[in-house]
Amino acid sequence: MRCRSALVVGSLLLSVTLSGCATATAAGSAADGSATSPAVLSEPTPTEASPTPVDPEAAAAHAKAQAWLDAAALPPGAVRSEKPVGSYLSYTGWPCGPIEEIEAYWTVPDITVADTAIWLRDHPTADLITSTPWSFDDPTIDSAIVGYIPAPNAQEGVVYTLATYRDGVAVRAEIAALTASGSCPPLPDGAQYGAPGQG
């Protein structure tokens, strides 16, 4: 009886060992001993998001605003900042739309607000005309606005806001370009909009 039990246990162990080998062989090689690649499940293909449709009018207005920014003329030594700099007391409200807007910032060392404003007024951006006809005679002013528009009565263009900053001046440019189909809400009693940059 003892021999028979040992024989049964031995047979069971041999059977388990052989089945383990058979499983490994089946996964790693063919029956003739040649290697095979294990089956790989393919990853599900991600669904591609549909591209956001581009509004051609908005794209053209943005390109115009960008061209005005690219043509911005700042006093010598001005350094463009990738983040907002300076503290400003006002913002330009563009009453017409739709528009495309861009903001940009610079610092100009060793200069006054008055001298920066005079320099900006005397050096137009691109082919824009100034909407700021007054002079900046007071050398102690600590803020100023200089505006530019593409044509009389236009409600788009560039508005520079200046503020004292450390040992010089911080400059913010608010740039807005009206889309081709943009319009201005009518004002009552024959009122007119003030030009950008006139407060």
Tags for this entry?
single chain; 199 residues; alpha+beta; six-stranded antiparallel sheet
What does this protein look like?
There is one protein chain. The chain is an alpha+beta fold and 199 residues long. Helix content is 26%, strand content 25%. It has three helices and six strands, in the order H-H-E-E-H-E-E-E-E. A six-stranded antiparallel beta sheet has the order 1-2-6-5-4-3.
Q: Helical segment tally? A: 3
Q: Write out the strand line-up for the largest beta sheet, numbering strands in chain order.
A: 1-2-6-5-4-3
Secondary structure: helix percent: 25-40%
Q: Structural class given helices, strands, pairing?
A: alpha+beta
User: How big a fraction of the residues is strand?
Assistant: 25-35%
Number of strands: 6
Give the CA-CA distance, first to last residue: 111 Å
Largest sheet: 6 strands, antiparallel
The run of helices and strands is HHEEHEEEE
**Gyration radius over CA:** 37 Å
Outline: globular
Mean pLDDT: 81
Unreliable stretches, pLDDT < 50, 5 or more residues? 1-31, 33-42
